Amino acid sequence: MPLRLSVLVLLVAAALLAGCGDDSDDAESTTTADYDITGSWAGELHQEGLDPFRVTADIQSLDDSAQNTVHYTGIDCSGTWSYEGRSGAAFRFREVIDSGVGGKCKGVGTVSLTPFADDGVDYQFDGGGVQSVGVLKRTG
After folding, report:
1. Between 3.40.50, 3.90.1150, 2.40.160, 2.40.30, what CATH number should domain 39-139 receive?
2. What is the pTM of this model?
3. Model confidence over 74-111: pLDDT tens digits?
4. Who's near 43: CB < 8 A, 6+ residues apart?
């Protein structure tokens, strides 16, 4: 009898543990797999050697980069983002700056937007030997 009880306890424990794992996996896949990155975004960015500056971005299409515009205030640079796909939870875009002045405007790089809430993403830019980081919030 104690052996049957031990087996039953182990089976119940295994079922509970498997259920817990399934719930968190479903929640994560719903949050990240179904996330809609399109829309208007704004936030403050930080980059070594520069004062904090603002960014505004409109992501209107994952197929047409001309519909995805970005503008950096303070360093006065603008350009477009071309969607490159996902890397884990992050949406990755190739940034091409086509207007702006001086060495503070890097021509090409990769922007990663990692959702942490329906209205918020972590922002990271890498390119031209620099990295910028910050948080963007949905606007409008």
Report:
1. 2.40.160
2. 0.75
3. 778 899 999 999 999 999 999 999 888 666 666 799 99
4. 54, 55, 123, 134, 135, 136, 137
